Amino acid sequence: MGLGECRFDFEKKIILVTGGSGLVGQAIKQAKQQDPRENETFIFLSSKDGDLKDPAATQRIFERYKPTHVIHLAAMVGGLFNNMKHNLDFLRNNILINDNVLHNSYKLGVKKVVSCLSTCVFPDKTTYQIDETMIHNGPPHPSNFGYSYAKRLIDVQNHAYHQQHGCHFTAVIPTNVFGAYDNFNLEDGHVIPGLIHKAYIAKKEGKPLVVYGSGKPLRQFIYSIDLAKLFLFVLREYEEIDPIILSVDESSEVSIGEVAQIIADAFQLEHGIVLDSTKADGQFKKTASNNKLRTYLPDFQFMPLKDAIERTVQWFNLNYNIARK
Ligand code: NAP
Ligand code: GFB
């Protein structure tokens, strides 16, 4: 069954989206408006609704909204440099958040939970392309071991809840995501929002764009809106407990230098790009296979990277005042 085609599903769904105010949450808000279903009611949470690290606050949220389905996005999230500085916080905060959300979902008889891992959780020393079966095959890259082990544990928890209680808790594994409402903080954010913010400043100051590291590492980037459409597919159609990678094709993998050039062109920068090799490169590559996704959605069209980056640059220029930075 393709995207947009739906089996008639009259079951009333109350869908709680934890982390609904962030990059991916805002994209799901937009995607569900573009592809609405009468039987679905969405509730988008932010940390203002309650700290999900706190068991009592989490229980209050679940008792208040009584969800039938959960899209679990809430997490301590950050780029390479934030992870390298705070591996312990990424480990503890995400373990606490995930345990509270999954256990309250079990206690309230939630019919389905779709949690969110990341391709950085896979082993650093591996064969390529990486696929879903490799998730526990060795240590992750040392730059983000805290976040990675906390995320791997979600897969372990999903299987444990299924084995002991028959719960239907699953997970998706996206590659690096970008888009509107991202975290454009220069220290803590990911590479695309970081470079967009730096290009914005470079444009104003008539300076070159500074790219951290060698510019050689390779990444697959998925636009938040494409990811959101795939999240809705998984919520509505995907029946497995085992996770599924949500990634663009391997052929769309680019180097950091190439993505920096796309951003510099989008801002029509006139002073070029310089590399700051004093900064870390992190993991050289984490090339993921989307073969499993393609068995479900062989014709899914991803937005070309250049177009998606130009839309994100446009959003940042228009929303500079409200953007997280
Ligand atoms: P984000 O923009 O940083 O948003 C994080 C969300 O989680 C926000 O809504 C935030 O609420 C909420 N949150 C954080 N700590 C919380 C707490 N203690 N209690 C309640 N809510 C809390 O993150 P994102 O990029 O959208 O990531 C969404 C999911 O995708 C995460 O699970 C992340 O691990 C995963 N992921 C992201 C990427 C990527 O490249 N961004 C790649 C792969 C996977 P406030 O807005 O109130 O702070
Ligand atoms: O997106 P990023 O921070 O995360 O960095 P990772 C990607 C690459 O971009 C690294 C380079 O090779 C950086 O050296 N880079 C160049 C920059 N300029 C910049 C810049 O201005 N800011 C940043 N941040 N990078 C993360 C994991 O790894 O991937 C997280 O640590 C999460 O846990 C995320 O999984 C999706 O792709 O290296």
Automatic annotation (TrEMBL):
List, in alphabetical order, the Gene Ontology terms for molecular function in this entry: GDP-L-fucose synthase activity; isomerase activity
Oxidoreductase as UniProt keyword? yes
Q: Which Pfam families match?
A: Epimerase
EC code: 1.1.1.271
Question: Mind listing the UniProt keywords for this protein, alphabetically?
Answer: Isomerase, NADP, Oxidoreductase
Q: Which residues form a coiled coil?
A: none
Its UniProt pathway annotation is:
Nucleotide-sugar biosynthesis; GDP-L-fucose biosynthesis via de novo pathway; GDP-L-fucose from GDP-alpha-D-mannose: step 2/2
Question: What are the NAD-dependent epimerase/dehydratase domain coordinates in residue numbering?
Answer: 15-242
Q: Which SUPFAM superfamilies match?
A: NAD(P)-binding Rossmann-fold domains
One Gene Ontology BP term is: 'de novo' GDP-L-fucose biosynthetic process
CDD domains found in the cross-reference section: GDP_FS_SDR_e (cd05239)
* Origin: domain of life: Eukaryota
Q: What does this protein do?
A: Catalyzes the two-step NADP-dependent conversion of GDP-4-dehydro-6-deoxy-D-mannose to GDP-fucose, involving an epimerase and a reductase reaction.
Query: According to its UniProt record, which protein family does this protein belong to?
Result: Belongs to the NAD(P)-dependent epimerase/dehydratase family. Fucose synthase subfamily.
What's the protein here called? GDP-L-fucose synthase
Protein species of origin: Daphnia lumholtzi
- Provide the taxonomic classification: Eukaryota, Metazoa, Ecdysozoa, Arthropoda, Crustacea
Give the gene name: EOG090X09NN
